[in-house]
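=== Structure Prediction Worksheet ===
Name of assembly: unnamed complex
Input type: mixed (protein and possibly other molecules)
Chain count: two
Listed entries:
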Amino acid sequence: MRKRGVWAVLLLPYLLTVSSPLDCREEQGSLSRCPSISQEKLLDRVIQHAELIYRVSEESCSLFEQMFIPFPLQLQRNQVGYACITKALPIPSSKGEIQQISDKWLLHSVLMLVQSWIEPLVYLQTSLDRYDAAPDMLLNKTKWVSEKLISLEQGVVVLIKKMLDEGMLTATHSEQGLFQYDVQPEMLESVMRDYTLLSCFKKDAHKMETFLKLLKCRQTDLYNCA
Amino acid sequence: MMKKAVELVLLLLLLFFTPHIMGKRYSPPGKPTLTRCRSPEKETFTCWWEPGSDGGLPTTHALYYRKESSERVYECPDYHTAGENSCFFNKNDTSIWVNYNITVVATNTLGSAFSDPVDVDVVYIVKPNPPEKQTVTIMEDKGWPFLRVSWEPPQKADTRSGWITLIYELRVKLEEENEWEMHLAGHQKTFNIFSLRSGGKYLVEVRCKPDHGFWSEWSSTSYIKVPDYFHREKSVWILLTIFSAFIFLILTWLLHMNSRSLKNCILPPVPGPKIKGFDNQLLKNGKSDEIFSALMVSNFPPTTSSNYEDLLVEYLEVYVPVEQELMQEESKDLHGGCLKCERSTSDSDSGRGSCDSHTLLMDKCGETKEEGRHTDRASSRMLTEAQRHQKGWEKDTLTYAHGDMVSPDMSNGRVKTWPSVFSPLPQYSSNPLDKQSSLEMAKQHCLSTSSCLTQPGHSTKEALGPSNWDFCLGNKQPHLLHPQTQVGRQLQAHSEVNISNIGRKQAPAGLQSPALRSTEYVEVQRVNEEDLVLLQPVVSGCGRIEGYPQMPKGKDYSKVKGVDSDNMLLLQREVMEEDWCPGVDQEINGGTGNCYTSSTVNTTQKPTACIHTAMPVQGDMALAMNGYVDTATMCTLPTC
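=== Predicted Assembly ===
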């Protein structure tokens, strides 16, 4: 370890000096010499990431709904006493608010959303595992979503750092107070809770995607973005 | 000082040569190089490097990477998963948000070597695995087979969620070929291949590529054999070819059959000379004599009728009306020596005009038949009249003669006269043969009567001027006719019965009712310079036309021997053995004969003899001859 650390120290200036120029050239088929990903590319990737997350979450929610939720209760998901966990977050909810918010706040809002959903999704995963008849596809999807969400978080962090030149923001896992575990809830309640969870997440994922796309729109064409 | 320098030099030398002294060369390791980094699914990636020379010492390699935005250096987490000289980054270590700066370090005891750093963006180094579960099947589309290729994306690539979107490409070739046929399939996972060779064996492979990334390796080859199928298009073409060949054969055959007519149509033959008797071969042979002899037509120019009398023929057609009565006496042809049968009527070249004797005679024949009937009846009357009116006839004859002279159509130069002939024979009928015989008789009688008439004719001679008409009252009895002999006008008399003339004829002798009905035709041969119309007896009636032949030799013809000083025509009888009697006064054109006819004076005696002699002649002389004077009739002068 010492050796390696010594080598790393030794390498450091070497690496820094020998680094290729900052402007990236996208060359397929060859190792990129670009030291960092450009901001536009990064934003595109983050948007794509968010789109995927939303899509998968929508699929899993519908799948869950078909399997576990009786029809009469499908329309009532928001009226049940299980409110979305992120309701309390200072996130703009209307179009008017979104238009007024700055880029910084957009990004931060996205980050907040992402960070607030990481743990509940883990819980959801465990809850679904307890089901007897949960299909594998549903489980895989939810699992995938939780993984990608973490990745998305990383991306947004990098994006914030790049766009806003802010320092690294550590994941605030202290906000787990939003979510409270119930110990061994009843099956029906569990189902309803999970269902609520999924649907809320679906909405939030859509929010994330929308914010990011708006951000992108502002980057390219400031005056045409709504 | 010196020692230190020497030590330094020695040390340096040692340093330099120590490796050589050692006998083996150890060096720090060569510079490694990162060959490639690949990510199969955009979630993990692997980097491979190539080590440099190891310098003879065991060398270790280490890979260090640094994330884009941080200064922190990380070492490769996994050296073994991906094999030798590789570093595998698992999911946790892989981030699509940042670039990786990777360096490989080779280290041995003597030193270390650093490779060139490489920046890696995970998204751009994605090279998926080849597509999996590839299947090729043969399907049919309306009898035409085609290949359907289907595959699955590589398992690791998460295309379902859209994490990676792949495009596919496949290639096909026949087993025996060398070149592949590429097809880009896009995002779809099936593809159809058409236009297959019947019975061929095909190889199919598929590969894929993400949006930004590298093409995967080709999948494992699938083999497929196309079944044999019949080319429907070929069969249609074969049928068409056979059909057109068939049509072509038929056309050729038709063309061959009609080749001649077509040839005539397209290339009409050049008309060659068509000379009768002209032989091309003879011409080619070059013998002109034969050619021209062949050209010689036997009857051209017409030599048989070599009498130029014929050539000089101008026929004066004299039209004799039915009411008139004509009496003629035969006149002789005064040319040359002999009268010849006039055959020119049969000759189209005789110089006659449109008023051909043939046709006219035909018409007249028909007419005369009628007339004959009429005249028969009338003649009887007329004869009786003639008995009573003897004197009047002279004028009438004159007039008639004149009329006859005038009336005939002289325009064409041919005059035909049909003087009526009275024949005493009762058996006259419309029968042409009978006519002829009657004509003969009439002739005879005519002549005889004429001769008779000439006797007393002196009284009437003057009255009759220009015309000589012999009225022949046909009867066996000799009677009188007043032959008006005059030099100027003498007409041959073979004619039909003319009623009025008969009436005039008052014969001193009893004129019997002339039953003469025959029609005889007289042809005017020419008009001589003395205004004398020379008549020639022509075959009368219809029979004439057919039987208008050459002058039979066997006929009883008289020739003009000559004309004596008294303007007497001397006739010569050819056939008759009997002696001749002198005939009528006629113009003499010359001739010899053993029968001389004198004019009036001597005739008195003769008639009887002539008559008698004439009798047998009647039967013989069936035809009225041309140009021949019936001397028999002439000779047989009626007894006046």
